[in-house]
Amino acid sequence: LEPEQVPPSEINWNLKLYDKTDGWKSLEWMIGALVCMFDASGITAALKLDNTELVAFFVQVRGMYWDSNDFHNFSHVFSVTHACYMLAFTSSARAALTLEDQIAIMLAGLCHDLDHYGVNSDFLIKSARFSF
Known about the structure:
Elements: E1 18-19, E2 23-24, H1 27-41, H2 43-46, H3 51-62, H4 74-89, H5 99-111, H6 121-126
Helix pairs in contact: 1-3, 1-4, 4-5
């Protein structure tokens, strides 16, 4: 996958992941925007990653979200990660966060719904899909 080059100026509260005219942003755009956010936040440098490693990680994470899930899919995850970035890195909150906090926030946004089936716990219990 070759991610698009997304400039930091496009990562803002006005970002539109979906546009009625143009449709959804491409996977290449979303991966490129994630690279931009991790670079701009300083996480890429702090973890001594290069963008090839970062893209490979994002593609692996993307593979763990179900396209058949109407809500808990990669577009949702991108939106949550974008909100995490905006709150943690473009507000006064950044000064109160350690590097570990910043990394945890971004990884939590990215991975919070990995392999989500798209149903709630009550459904899983009643269907005996999982035992708790």
